[in-house]
Amino acid sequence: MENNLPAIPPKRYFTIGEVSELCGVKPHVLRYWEQEFAQLRPVKRRGNRRYYQRHEVLLVRRIRDLLYEQGFTISGARNRLAELGPGAIRALEDEQDLDEALAEAAAPPAVVGAEPEALPSPSALLLPPLPEPSDGPLTPQQLRAELLAIRALLG
């Protein structure tokens, strides 16, 4: 996916204008995509105002990537999203959280002239032993647990 899009702020709901800026797509395109992609259903409140949740912002970014970056047609992108299933958006949320955590860890100190934090002692860097490799691939739950453990180590 396009890496020059801004990070998604930790909010519960986003207006169509905010989603437009976060995803690099005009509001009329978002309204059109709502008609074309069944998965994209923002909450509508007073006066038919649309409020998108975080998973829908990630879905819009995925749709944008399929259409603009990978060259899919609308029907091709719709089919691709159907192939990936609902778990794909959950994986995107976890990936976004991991990307944000890595970006925060790599960011310079916020205050100019501030000293960076002291490095932990080498004994604090020792990792628990890796589990024995299994015969088959990891389940999504096992992969998620490992990624969350890595994120906890980084944070």
Order of helices and strands: EHHEEHHHH
The strand order across the widest sheet is 1-3-2
Distance between the termini: 24 Å
Helix content: 40-55%
User: How many runs of DSSP E, i.e. beta strands?
Assistant: 3
Low-confidence stretches: none
Q: Which structural class should the secondary elements be placed in?
A: mainly alpha
Number of helices: 6
Mean pLDDT: 78
Gyration radius (Cα, Å) is 19 Å
Strand content: 5-15%
Shape: globular
The major sheet is characterized as: 3 strands, antiparallel
Characterize the structure shown.
By secondary structure, the protein is mostly helical. Helices cover 52% and strands 6% of the residues. It has 6 helices and 3 strands. It has helices at 16-23, 27-36, 54-69, 74-84, 87-106, 140-154, and strands at residues 14-15, 43-45, 49-52. The chain has a 3-stranded antiparallel beta sheet. A hairpin with a 3-residue loop joins strand 2 (43-45) and strand 3 (49-52). Helix 3 (54-69) crosses helix 5 and helix 5 packs parallel to helix 6 (140-154). The model has no long low-confidence stretch (mean pLDDT 78).
